[in-house]
């Protein structure tokens, strides 16, 4: 999915998505339910995703592509030292091949009650190999200050489609204010309409991603300028009266 950097007026990065599958007795494949995932499963999935990123190529052989990639890594696959060391080894290899300036990590499945010191330790181990680490905020989190100065460059909130638009706009405004008070980048995912996109833009959210942004940006996977007026792509502008 494209990630719109509102401040720079461009899409220069994309989120890499993964789906865990398993082979059935009939030879077909089915999606693995989250409840069936183990820490080892999460670690294997993380390494597969990093391997995929490493296989992306740019214009010259062996060079990374001219885009940045956001890689979601589950906290569940990093909580144990053995699995974490394997992932860190893969990240070091990517950094040595030139990926560091183009690689962002997104910590997902972070427990809402995780102590600040534990998050700080984990972020400190990841940061040397990437451009930045962002934390996806659990939906039940009410106070971001518990993770103040954890070393992450930003926080990511995901909008809840079951809430009314007014409730989602209130969430956007509070999240933007909270991240501004912490001095970190505000990123918002799950944006599904123009009104929510514009509300986030007005609130000062830095990075935006979701179905609506993807629809307007198109299927191209390359860095391009993208401005607020591009949200009206493919629509007939109202005639002046």
Report the β-strand fraction as a percent range: 15-25%
Sheet/helix structural class: alpha/beta
Helix content range of the residues, please?
Answer: 25-40%
Which sequence of SSEs, written as H and E, runs from N to C?
A: EEEEHEHEHEEHEHEHE
- DSSP, total strands: 11
N- to C-terminal distance: 38 Å
* Cα gyration radius (Å): 19 Å
Question: How are the strands ordered across the major sheet?
Answer: 1-2-5-6-7-8-9-10
Number of helical stretches of at least 4 residues: 6
Mean of all residue-level pLDDT scores? 88
The biggest beta sheet is recorded as:
8 strands, mixed, barrel
Q: What do you see in this structure?
A:
The chain has 241 residues and is an alpha/beta fold. Helices cover 33% and strands 20% of the residues. The protein has six helices and eleven strands. It has helices at 39-55, 81-96, 116-126, 165-182, 194-203, 211-217; strands spanning 2-5, 10-15, 21-23, 29-31, 68-74, 103-108, 132-136, 154-158, 185-189, 207-208, 224-225. The chain has an eight-stranded mixed β-barrel with strand order 1-2-5-6-7-8-9-10, surrounded by four helices. Helix 1 (39-55) packs parallel to helix 2 and helix 4 (165-182) runs parallel beside helix 5. The longest helix is centred in the C-terminal third of the chain and has 18 residues, at 165-182. The chain is globular, with a radius of gyration of 19 Å. The N and C termini lie far apart (38 Å).
